Amino acid sequence: MTAVAQPARSETTPAPSRWHAISPLLVAVLAAAGAVLVYAVFIRTGLGQTVDTASMRGGDVRHEQVTQVLSRTLQATQLAALAIVCLVAVGVGILRRRLDLSIGAALLVLAANVAVQQLKAHLDRPDLDGTGMPNSFPSGHTAAAASVAFVLILVFPRALRGAMGLLGAAYVTVVAVATVWAEWHRPSDTVAALLIVLTCGALIAWVIRLRRAGGERPSITPARVATLPLGLVGAISTAACLFGLATVAVSERVLPDLVSGRFAFLTGVAGILSAVAGTFYFWVRLTAGDPLAPAQGGTK
């Protein structure tokens, strides 16, 4: 019997499947549905508002160094700094001869931040917890930080996207926690902002994949240096958040003073960690599946 020679292993795989082409659209739909669910639970119900506000007011941070880090991180989200980072991202895309990524990066930042500001201006927040506080849903600071981190992951070469994903997730976590600590936002505001940014990013990734539908997809897996720790942190923080939410809800409605304000704040932090880990996990995976141009013939 004559052995059939095995074909040489290529660095690329055939054109992406239909599932590969539509998966960003599915992520966008699920992220948008998640943002709607957060609004329905934490803005439109009395218990949700009470738990959310308790999580915000429990963040009485008195450690001087921690306070300085949080304050400086919030200051770093100023419009001028974000614009400079976005210009760098667009420039990297142009240098890599990926004009579609440069355009996508600009659209992502614009769409995500405009969407968040419009929602904050037009969404209704009934006073169900008796605080009389105005609407702050969703968080503009968190959306700005997350959108910048997303575009850097999008435009940088694949070899760097895992490291960029971890750095971006860490930065966005500090920004989101800082807004809650400063009582600018409740935890639900930051979670919804992250989901909105992921929605916009996934839609742009879907358009890019449709544009390059005839190209080859690199036969590489998403950077495990990012997906493994993000998945682990996401699983642990989600479990902690769910337990904390149930406990704080019981404390607010059944057993007053069962838990402290600090416990409620840490529950909100766990929810933020869960949202950051989840959104960045999916974004790293989506950007890893970016197809090559039909005539490109190599990975970049």
UniProtKB/TrEMBL annotation:
It holds the Pfam family PAP2. Coiled coil: none annotated. Signal peptide: none annotated. It comes from the Bacteria. The keyword Transmembrane applies. The chain crosses the membrane at residues 21-42, 76-94, 101-119, 139-156, 163-184, 190-208, 228-251, 263-284. Keywords: Membrane, Transmembrane, Transmembrane helix. The keyword Ribonucleoprotein does not apply. Residues 98-205 form the Phosphatidic acid phosphatase type 2/haloperoxidase domain. This is Membrane-associated phospholipid phosphatase. It comes from Actinoplanes octamycinicus. The lineage of its organism: Bacteria, Bacillati, Actinomycetota, Actinomycetes, Micromonosporales.
